UniProtKB/TrEMBL annotation:
InterPro entries: Surf1/Shy1, Surf1/Surf4
Protein encoded by which gene: Surf1
Keywords for the protein's UniProt record, in alphabetical order: Membrane, Mitochondrion, Mitochondrion inner membrane, Transmembrane, Transmembrane helix
Official protein name in the record: SURF1-like protein
GO BP terms: mitochondrial respiratory chain complex IV assembly
Species, as recorded: Dipodomys ordii (Ord's kangaroo rat)
């Protein structure tokens, strides 16, 4: 009976398509093609599952990496805020005598020092444009859309230290543009020997979009101590005179700004935001809801 049923073309169910092909006696070429296609059809899902699994875990690296970078920026922010606090505290420390060795100054930036000597007003340098630092006024104008800040310059004057026998550069402070010419502020040109307290500053590198210094026009946009020292014949030592050095008709001292680049909060928001967005997209694509939920 089994033979008769096979003779009329009924396949044996558990033998699959290949048994059916033999029963109906398909041409050899057709049977082979069918077998080849059938074999390929059983392999594709397995390869696809393997590819999806690799892609799933590979894409998970994106939110994981973003989270790690965001956490690292949190640590960097804490470090930067602590450093700013330390520098602000250093500015308020008791002044020490200016070291005789200029190499010691590399570790003393923002440290108050004492000097004694006299100015050489004939070789002034002008750092411009600048605005006057006035904490009281800045606090009053905080939150306003505009301010009364006037543009001007810092007056940098060679100062011969009689106790050390060297000439250094002193930022005496701010003057408005109309007072840059020393002829307009003769009253403030200090003569004779004076005691001075100033904040140690180091040389600067030119930042993007900041113009080049123009020694020929005596326009200085950033502190290039080597170039300034060469022009004036002073040592490449620079201090900001404190506010108490201000005299009537002269530059306004105390123009030291403790400025450190601090964009870590922006980076924190960027990385954590990227982590949240990519985590959502990953979960939406790869996490399957169980039936009935």
């Amino acid at each position: 009976m089994a033979r008769a049923r096979r003779g009329i073309g009924y396949p044996v169910l558990f033998e699959g398509f290949w048994s059916y092909a033999n029963v109906v006696k398909l041409p050899p070429g057709v049977a082979q093609r069918s077998s080849r296609y059938g074999s390929s059809a059983t392999e594709v899902p397995a390869a696809k599952v393997e590819d999806d699994s690799f892609l799933q875990w590979f894409l998970l690296l994106i939110p994981a990496t973003a989270f790690g970078l965001g956490t690292w920026q949190v640590q960097r922010l804490k470090w930067k805020l602590k450093l700013i606090e330390e520098l602000e505290a250093r500015v308020m420390a008791e002044p020490i005598p200016l070291p005789a060795d200029p190499l010691e100054l590399k570790s003393l930036e923002y440290r108050p020092v004492r000097v004694r000597g006299h100015f050489d007003h004939s070789r002034e340098l002008y750092m411009m444009p600048r605005t006057m630092m006035d904490p009281a006024r800045e606090a009053q104008e905080a939150g306003r859309l505009s301010s009364s800040t006037e543009s001007g310059a810092y007056v940098v004057t060679p100062f011969h230290c009689t106790d050390l026998g060297v000439t250094i550069l002193v930022n005496r402070g701010f003057v408005p543009m109309k007072k840059v010419n020393p002829e307009t502020r003769q009253k403030g040109q200090i003569a004779g020997e004076v005691d001075l307290v100033g904040i140690v500053r180091l040389t600067e590198t030119r930042k993007p979009f900041v113009p080049e210094n123009n020694p020929e026009k005596n326009h200085w946009h950033y502190r290039d101590l080597e170039a300034m020292a060469k022009i004036t014949g002073a040592e490449p030592v620079f201090i900001d005179a404190n506010f108490q050095s201000t005299v009537p008709g002269g530059p306004v001292g105390g123009q030291t700004r403790v400025t450190l680049r601090n964009e870590h909060m922006q980076y924190i928001l960027t990385w954590y935001g990227l982590c949240a967005a990519t985590s959502y997209l990953w979960a939406k694509k790869f996490l399957r809801r169980t039936p009935g939920r």
